[in-house]
Amino acid sequence: MPAEDHVSPVTKQNADETAATDRFLSLQALTKRYGDTAAVDAVDLDVRKGEFLAMLGPSGCGKTTTLRMIAGLVPTTAGQIVVAGRDLTNVPPYQRDMGLVFQSYALFPHMSVAANVAFGLEMRGMAKADIRARVAEALQLVRLTGYEDRRPGQLSGGQQQRVALARALVIRPLILLLDEPLSNLDAKLREEMRNEIRDIQRRLGTTALFVTHDQDEALTMADRVVVMNKGRIEQTGTPEDLYERPRTAFVAAFVGRTNRFPGTGAGEVVHVGGVTMRCARPVSGPVEVMIRPHRIHLDGAGERRADDNHAAGTIIRTTYAGNVVQYDVQAGDAVFNVEQSTDATGALVSVGTAVTLSWSVANTLVFEAAP
Amino acid sequence: MDERPISRILIWLASASFLFLLAPVLIVIPLSFSGDVFMSFPPSSWSLRWYASIGQHPKMIDAFFFSLKLAGAVTVVNLLIAVPAAYALVRLAPPGAATLMSVLTAPLLLPTIVLALAMLIVAARAGLLATPQGLFLAHLVVTLPYALRIISTALATVPIAVEEAAATLGATPLTVFRRVTLPLIIPGLVAAGALSFLVSFDEVVLSLFMSGPRLSTLPVEMYHHVESRADPLVAAISVLLVLFTLFIVIVVDRSLGLARTFVK
Predict the structure, then answer these.
(1) ipTM exceeding cut-off 0.85 for this assembly
(2) Does A183 touch chain B (CB under 8 A)?
(3) What is the count of residue pairs from A and B with beta carbons less than 8 Å apart?
(4) What would the pLDDT profile of B47-82 be if each residue is shown by its tens digit?
(5) In 3D, which of A366, A371, A367, A369 has the Cα closest to residue A286?
(6) Cα nearest neighbour of B184 on chain A
(7) CB-based contact (8 Å) between A149 and chain B?
(8) Is it true that domain A260-368 has CATH number 2.40.50.100?
(9) From A104, which residue of chain B is nearest by alpha-carbon distance?
(10) pTM as predicted
(11) Any CB–CB contact under 8 A between A171 and chain B?
(12) CATH number for the domain running over B57-263
């Protein structure tokens, strides 16, 4: 680039440093095609150094294929993978320095826990004494000190997962890649491991890429979330961005629970099955309207809040789930799902009660209907 | 293990079939201790003379050692071919891998006599009849399908993710195979090796076609002996062979058991 000739060396170096931290991992038009179908379709993505990024999407959306391309286990069809300024696209997996944690853990069943963790260091030709020290350190990190001589078959699922994590981290990888690491664990352990993985990643400052189909995992763990669908990125943003400001109907529906209505836009208002509501931006023609169940207030018939949108309806079903109650409310032709947190003194509203629903314009998300 | 009561009829059926399978072996044992000049059952007198007379049959002893060497060579070469072949078929899975596997294991389905006849014709042309090389190739053809099947099955049970994990940790493909894949398929290798050895060692039909007056395997030599003389010598040899086979099976079982605890 001739333009660089005019840039002073100092500025140039700063620019390089910024590039190295802001775009530590950079995917450029990354594509994987199997025959005619594109599993991953021209994905562009930049990941900052030290960032915890989640790739979220339904199965078959291309998130795992993307991860495996970064690890070097799946050859790319087109595009580039650049890590810390180095093009890794055609580098074999054993020269990439990626730490990969598999859904199935993929521990070496014929080796002890210590030998499993030591494997990557041995491959790097490290001295025996150094290996021992690093293995001990890594096992301490995942709270498995004392398990050195066990075989993977003698460990519980959670312990195996922690060995897999230690094995991937001990090589001090450029990027820690996690492929649905929690989906084989039971619910309670999953939550524990979420925090543990997050804490370890923060403490080490490792850049991490986490593939999951579980929106809770993505929202609670990640600094940034990439939502993928059909091989393409639907939206990239903080968990809050995705939840509060979804850019597509797919993201709104996939991230969090939502009421989803077909409607007709008429400028500032939308008509949904006999209910007219205002929305944040002018729309016309067929649209999809989404309102989160817990953003709708439920009051007695005739009681009106200052909220901008209202609908009168009747409760047709009540579902009690401990911390929340869900009401299905028939309003016009539409059935609204409304969620309220419970409190010890509040009584449930019974089926058949006439109520008023209110919700703000900001919570009335409108998307062009899919053709 | 859940222990359910086994129906009485089943026990009877099982015992009957065991007896049917083992009866010939059970008759061979008393026969080998016969003191008679001819094979007859039950023997009229008892002695160890037929065991002692094995030593006076150098052809028998030569044939035994030749069979041993042949089976050993067949087993080693068999594994050297079957492991890479199975790896290519299972892991690299080229287009047509399934068809190729069927072709390679086809000798299992072919009547041995047909195979033997074909080999006889080919070997006669190539001047390999009654040569160690000819017998070696013939035995390789019949044992390879077993080894290929067993090793392919063993390979298929090693999860690819485990090999991939090794690769991401810095192991080259060869190191992955040596450090991860190979140790995990050892039980399969032992089983395939033992079966190749025993099939080669016991092979009669092929060897009969491929051997000559100056070179024959132990089973063929025994067959010729029975053809010309009806003394209980072969019974004595048979008992020794049963013990030998049993020994191999026990060794295999032990090492397989070892491999299993090693892998667990």
Answers:
(1) no
(2) no
(3) 69
(4) 888 888 888 888 889 999 999 999 999 999 999 999
(5) A369
(6) A110
(7) no
(8) yes
(9) B161
(10) 0.81
(11) yes
(12) 1.10.3720.10
